[in-house]
Amino acid sequence: RGQFPLAGKPQLHPRPIALRRIGRAMADAVVAARRESIRKLAELKSPVPADIDVAQAATVVPIRTVAAACGLTEADYEPYGHYKAKVSEKVSEKLKAERGEGYYVVVAGINPTPLGEGKSTTTIGLAQAMGAHLEKNCVACIRQPSMGPTFGIKGGAAGGGYSQVIPMEEMNLHLTGDIHAIGAANNLLAAAIDARVFHELTQKDEALYDRLCPRKKDGTRVFAASMLKRLRKLGIDKTDPDELTAEERVAFARLDIDREKISWRRVVDMNDRFLRKITVGQNPTEKGHTRETGFDITVASEIMAVLAMTTSLADMERRLGAMVVAPDTKGEPVTADDLGITGALVALMKDAIKPTLMQTLEGTPVLVHAGPFANIASGNSSIIADQIGRAMVGAGGFVLTEAGFGADIGLEKFMNLKCRSSGMKPHCAVIVATVRALKLHGGGPAVSPGKPLPHEYTNEDVELVKKGVANLTRHIENTKKFGVPVVVAMNMFPADTEAEHAVIKEAAMAAGANDCVLCTHHAEGGKGAAALGEAVAKACEANAGADNFGLLYEGETSIKHKIETIAKELYRADGVSYSEQAEAKIAMFTEQGFGALPICMAKTQYSFSHDADLKGAPTGFTLPIGDVRCSAGAGFIVPLVGAFPTIPGLPTRPAYYEIGVDMETEQVLGLS
Predict the structure, then answer these.
(1) pLDDT of 571-601, one tens digit each?
(2) Residue 324 and residue 334: Cα distance in Å, rounded?
(3) Burial (0-12, 13-18, 19+ Cβ within 10 Å), 240
(4) What mean pLDDT, rounded, does the chain reach?
């Protein structure tokens, strides 16, 4: 096999720079590790067994071998058991200097059915094709699954069939604890907010100040290091608590949080609709200081978004400290820094900043990191993982990073949020399409999890596909507005026909796609995505400089202008309406100085519009903005399209019915 830092080099690098810089011994070790880790699947079964059966029958290579095949030394990562490792967030600069950076490929999709269209499976299948079959350096970067959907509808999110991340049980259940760390940090901050409000309401000025800055046994007292940012914000340059004037003590000690406008909510990593609206403080010990609030799912926490957008531990500290939890009674933003809690949040998140290294069924390395949903959050894996991945593969290699749900939300946020923040430019976009979803967009009957597919989806219906390809066409057109070439991946299902595929390919090419490739990776692993890999490599090599890449809007324009640009340019709405609450929030955030932040729309994934039932490529609608949130730490404004819940509910028959543990083997059952 080709050496990991060397194979697949583009014409821009006529000589293998990696070998010169890392030395022959290291290169030989990489080659040996690749021989042991990268493998082609054999003895595939048809029909394809259940996902968990495929995963548990697979050979899993020790993570130290996968890491060695990536050219990592033991100082670059921390093993978590035998098959996972945390990779240092600091490693990318070292590797980049040794190897350069690989091509950057984003994988998105059309608006899906509730069953999903195999975008994660395609990402993994393409990675297997690149690594095991085309012998190119490749890393896939994907998000950590939330356990809400795992036990709700999806049953897992590690890919499917013969294109999976393994061990899939470990990926779907807890992984290395990042989501738990986010939940703990989020809820610590929520507890701190309510506690601070309570103590300010129940204590006089001097008593409050004395408790915040207690005296030691020798009579002296000091400010905690975490308090200094609050002092600087107030313009107080004194370091001795006893030197503050009475007015300065009050300004320091009283945050005066407007308790009716607290925006920070608690989180839990489960689908629980009954937590959407709750009342806290009902116990007598809270002395009647109740308020209404609610829960979000953990992956919707701003701390998750911070993790996805950060570039270093210092940057994460800055972002966590800048998170706004409420306005004060004068309308000024109150932040985590004001509460003096930033250091504690960083302590909880210091391990979560490191991406988790895993492997595919064919040994391609995978970096799993962050997990924001695309419909209610930023919808992409982390900038850090992508940077590490591009440096690991080196010049001429390929990083495949997945954007959540349809390209109208996941890919749009990848471009306007992730690339805006990181400065990285994508060389190619893959849009995953299925006959099934396009039939739905063409007017086919509703598709529901747990119910048999209607006749239209199990039999040829070329006319439905012809009507539905408008959805794919719009996604291609929208992606090309960013100056990025598009390759369409037709994810094949058993009921598909050649005639239906021909309709999709004709529409895709007419819309300006570079290629449209039929993929059978679910049934064949990387072999079934080899043609897709060749098309992606060709598109990247032809766009090596990513010179045409551009953002949809400038950050300096108003919040409304940015919302309306997305709505009109990508969704094709006629206009945007704002609730009274949304108008007030936009005015407040603009006054507070957040008007220049980019936009992260919270919207249904099932339609270009706000209405999940409005399929195809709708026009002529008005997009309603029901509320607006500010994620100042993550670095964006979040408009909620309509009344959009930020924690899902469980269906009538959740996926947890199928999940359990074999008492003899102790293997997990029922994940998919």
Answers:
(1) 999 999 999 999 999 999 999 999 999 999 9
(2) 6
(3) exposed
(4) 94
Place of tokens 């005296």: 215
- Length of the chain in terms of residues written: 672
Cis previous bond, 372, omega within 30: no
DSSP strand pairing (486-491 vs 428-433): parallel
Residue by residue, what is the 3-state secondary structure of 154-176?
CCCCCEECCEEEECHHHHHCCCC
| Cα atoms in the Cβ-side hemisphere of radius 13 Å centred on 471 | 34
What the block records as the tokens of 497 is 């026909």
Min mean pLDDT across 14-28, 88-102, 403-417, 456-470 is at 14-28
Q: Looking at residues 443-467, what average pLDDT do you find?
A: 95
Q: Minimal CA–CA distance to 408: which of 615, 554, 579?
A: 615
Alpha carbon 336 to chain centroid, angstroms: 23
β-bridge partners, 600: none
For position 18, what pLDDT does the model report? 45
Model confidence band, residue 21 (pLDDT cutoffs 50, 70, 90): low
**Taking the CA atoms of the chain, what radius of gyration do you get in angstroms?**
26
Tokens 């409000």 correspond to what residue? 197
Could you give the CA distance from residue 649 to residue 277 in angstroms, rounded to a whole number? 13
Asked, as a colleague might, if the bond just before 47 is cis with ω within 30 of 0, I would say yes
| 3 state DSSP class of 483 | coil
Rounded distance between C-alpha atoms, residue 148 and residue 222, angstroms: 44
Q: How confident is the model at residue 17 (pLDDT cuts 50, 70, 90)?
A: very low
Count CB neighbours of 287 within 10 A.
11
- Judge whether residue 20 has pLDDT over 80: no
In whole angstroms, give the CA distance from residue 487 to residue 462.
Answer: 22
